[in-house]
Design a protein that fits this description.
Largest interface: A-B, 94 and 94 residues
Oligomer: homodimer
CATH architecture of the domain at 8-150 in chain A: Orthogonal Bundle
CATH topology of the domain at 8-150 in chain A: Butyryl-Coa Dehydrogenase, subunit A, domain 1
Distance between the termini of chain A: 45 Å
CATH class of the domain at 8-150 in chain A: Mainly Alpha
Strand content of chain A: 5-15%
Number of helices of chain A: 17
Structural class of chain A: alpha+beta
Strand order of the largest sheet of chain A: 4-5-11-7-6
Shape of chain A: globular
Number of strands of chain A: 11
Helix content of chain A: 40-55%
């Protein structure tokens, strides 16, 4: 196995040289400085490399197991999970008032990337906990927070999100799970949810489900959905575990990838639940968690594409096959390493320009998440608007590019990449889910174009682009960046003008629009990174490659948008 | 399971309306007319649908099994394979002089597409036989042909190709398997080959390996490689099976997909082999087989992407989620089928425009393969040049587009598409191999740009483009077709001018060049199909979609090519 190497130098470059996050740290309530941040990153890298990565492929082969409602994680996961909880890795971003560490998201994004990259299957048992605690902290009563958050930040208890039902995925308005009033202000939850990541497993003492359900008599559709906290074991006022609550795992899914992660069907049979937030406002509460979860899924893709690149570049330096087109490089050997072949380099550079672009973008988005909590509303207001705008792009564009990069990494292995023992094919299978869950990438695109851009009148986008134009860039690329930002704004304007008379244009153009947005933002990031790297990271190599080989895709997407929706809408549905 | 529906109407449209293949059939030695062709296609479709498709997912779950050198195909494969042999499906394109049916490749390509689409895992036990018989027929002595071809066309014996060694894949010049002279003009073959599809299995009485090896004292590199016929059981002059030959399966591979197909490591330990063709000319002989096998691998991708589309469109018509942007379509229902959402239509139209474009391209290439055997050298000469030029594009562009289409099909299923039981994830895993084996798609691109275009001085390409320009096209698209053909020629000219001083440009630009070529050819095919469809197949819908949404990619690839190779070649190898 190629060892996982934590990309610490790149994190340092992004955090300090590119985004200067340490300048904003004195404003935060929890103490954080570069020294602490470095020790966190280094320790995280060590756990990722030494504890998590070695269990990745065995977890895939063994898979999670279900036996009469009991779910077991793969061999070794319990010991590794204990390392995560002992290190406090589930509570890094948590609220210090309830035992969290209050670290900035710019830092925890780096932590998450390393854990996703080293072992996505294992980190899935922990990652949902972050989203769940984020939601509880934002919307639950202080009593519920005090009862549940400390043990979740500790990792003694983990979190799960129960939204989907078999007939209601994207369209949550159709969900049927119901909540009946019990005495003492609690509810009895009954229904069946599917696709519940870590809904049942054997790594933690308790599992805290956040469940969407309809209170009896609630309005139809999305306006009648409430959010409930439903623990596997009931918890008394002293925080002690009591009797088992009324739900169980009916089965776990057999999946293309993330096979070591247990994805349950959960049957709730009058399970006791506590309302979070107001009745019928559950979807809004859930979206607090989803924004965070969506960024995290983008980072999952990023972590895996970094892993894929490391495997592919290592293989390309070792595998001897053919000769460089400019003549033998290793004259004594029977052949040159395939990294000497321009097409292999093209594949590796594509992976790396996309992956390092994605890392910069993830940190950029995390910086906005941090600023959104700034005490000055002038700072937090604009940052929150940027978070809303950027979240669907982070989730979809990073995961799409991660899939592309992982497939290219596999391609570098030739026939060996199709063999399970190479371990690269697992990365491809695992990364695929990041394009699908937490709202498919098509749904992200609709959210971006429909809700975040057009419903907003394009104002936040204009504000962001104006901000981007203020930054100093590598002069070699400044014109191209300006042009692609113009292209993005023009496409927006064209869509605003079309959408009034053509309600189908948003759906038809959304995915190309999101891609155009992504390539425009990465252009800015590459021009900025190229300027700020002192040469030690080779960012100028990647910037040049990005502008030569990848940015031209933006024009393709813009052209497709302007060709309109007729070719999509005209065919009759029966013809398909 | 969505039933597999053979695309018979589309085959008829392509064979007769688009390419008029029946006009060339009177020139052929084996009798063939529309009536016979129709009965072949219909019967093939029935076998694909009723016998093969139902075994596809169980084969993936069960996989092929290895036990101490004995290899078992999945449950049910033996009975289904017997149906294939009884129907004569392994000898459709075979030489009638030795028991083959002599059917035109335009027809057998359609046959292959249906078998690949219905059950790639099963057809892999048969498909290698076609390539092997093709090679034996072209290069072996009459005595070997008479001894081996009839039983192979019958399917009693199957074929296998043994090229790769663990250290020698693309770079066959490094191979070590050796051949020592035995008395009677035969050879003793010793060495280990990997990745041998159907090299060992339990579906046929005998397995005929074509093995590349070095005769003792042969020159180094590719000029010292010879081709040998090495049967699992020796065969006497009466065609009766004798003793077991000296080779065995050392193991089978665990793979990302095509898990029901047994991919063996084969250890040859002094196995008796018969020279095919001249000594040290083995690679040339192998390429006879490879041209055919490469077209077949493209068709494999095509068949699977058709299967993926059928699954996705069927799901999209049934799955209810949300409402159409223009208002409810099924007002009585809780939601509209997702096919009413423009983004789902965009995904389905992309799949279909690519898949039906690929089908047209595969038949176009098969027509050239047929013409290459025409008695008039004026006809066969140009066709053979076209076959050489088109083969790498057929293999790589069709399989790349098939992967893209299959991923989109999976995306249409949302979360359900990641679940094994949906069966769509298997298609994605199975189709992935078509981009890798028979020469990776990167190698196809180098073959196209380096050998088939630049070494040829661009002459065959110019001849082909001039031919394409003669055809009548749908007027709506004629200008765009002319422009993209110009773009292809311009990129070629630019590369010819650059390649003299820059030996790296070919490798750096090859993959984009192949994609540009593919989109140009598909533009011509869509403009032609749009003209010739009477409206019953909806080709005009797909042509419009192709020109609006997919053809703009050609400019992207052309732009990347013209940005040169500096960004690929400048980084130091150690930096990666």
């Amino acid at each position: 196995m190629t060892p996982y190497v934590p990309p610490i130098a790149d994190f340092n470059f992004l955090l300090y040289d590119v985004f200067g996050v340490d300048e904003e740290w004195p404003d935060r309530s929890a103490a954080i400085d570069k020294e602490l941040a470095n020790s966190i990153l280094n320790e995280c890298g060590r756990v990722a490399q030494d504890v998590m990565a070695p269990l990745s492929s065995s977890a895939d082969r063994e898979g999670a197991k279900w036996d009469d409602g009991k779910v077991s994680a793969p061999t070794g996961f319990k010991q590794a999970f204990d390392v995560l909880t002992e290190g406090g890795w589930l509570g890094t971003a948590g609220n210090p008032e309830f035992g969290g560490q209050g670290m900035p998201k710019a830092l925890t994004t780096a932590v998450e990337e390393m854990f996703w990259g080293a072992n996505t299957n294992l980190w899935l048992y922990a990652a949902l906990t972050s989203g769940a605690t984020y939601c509880i902290d934002a919307h639950a009563s202080n009593e519920l927070k005090a009862r549940f958050l400390p043990a979740m930040y500790d990792g003694r208890w983990t979190g799960a999100m129960a939204l989907t039902e078999s007939h209601a995925g994207t369209d949550l308005g159709m969900m049927r799970t119901r909540a009946e009033h019990l005495e003492g202000g609690t509810y009895a939850i009954t229904g069946t949810k599917i696709f519940i990541t870590s809904g049942e497993h054997d790594l933690a003492e308790n599992i805290v489900h956040l469940v969407l359900a309809r209170i009896e008599g609630a309005p139809q559709g999305t306006r009648g959905i409430s959010l409930f906290l439903v623990p596997k074991y009931l918890v008394n006022d002293q925080g002690e575990l009591g009797e088992r609550n009324g739900f169980a795992s009916g089965s776990i899914e057999h999946k293309m990838g993330i096979r070591g992660s247990a994805t349950s069907v959960i049957n709730y049979e009058g399970a006791k639940g506590y309302l979070i937030g107001e009745a019928n406002a559950g979807l809004r509460c859930m979206f607090t968690m989803m924004n965070y979860a969506r960024v995290s899924v983008g980072v999952q893709g990023l972590g895996l594409s970094e892993r894929a690149y490391q495997m592919a570049s290592s293989y390309a330096k070792e595998r001897l096959q053919g000769r460089a087109p400019t003549g033998p490089v290793k004259e004594q050997g029977a052949a040159d390493p395939i990294i000497e072949h321009p097409d292999v380099r093209r594949m590796l550079l594509t992976q790396r320009a996309l992956t390092e672009g994605s890392r910069a973008f993830a940190v950029f988005a995390a910086v906005q998440l941090d600023r959104a909590e700034h005490p000055d509303p002038g700072v937090s207001g604009v940052a929150l608007r940027y978070v809303e705008l950027l979240t669907p792009i982070v989730k979809a564009f990073i995961s799409d590019r991660a899939m592309e990069a992982s497939l290219l990494a596999q391609q570098c292995f030739g026939g060996h990449g199709y063999i399970v023992e190479s371990e690269i094919e697992q990365v491809v299978r695992d990364v695929r889910i990041s394009q699908i869950y937490e709202g498919t990438n098509g749904i992200q695109a609709l959210d971006l174009l429909g809700r975040k851009v057009l419903q907003d009148g394009g104002n936040t986008l204009a504000e962001l682009v104006a901000d981007l134009r203020q930054a100093e860039l590598d002069r070699s690329y400044a014109t191209k960046v300006s042009e692609v930002l113009d292209l993005w704004l023009e496409a927006t304007e064209w869509l605003r003008n079309s959408a009034g008379s053509n309600p189908s244009i948003v759906g038809a153009a959304a995915v190309d629009y999101l891609s155009l947005a992504g390539y425009a933002i990465y252009a800015w990031l590459w021009a900025r990174m190229s300027l700020l790297d002192d040469g030690s990271l080779g960012k100028s190599n990647l910037a040049r490659f990005y502008f030569d080989q990848l940015l031209p895709r933006s024009e393709y997407h813009a052209n497709v948008i302007k060709n309109g929706s007729d070719s999509v809408t005209l065919p009759n549905s029966d013809w398909f």
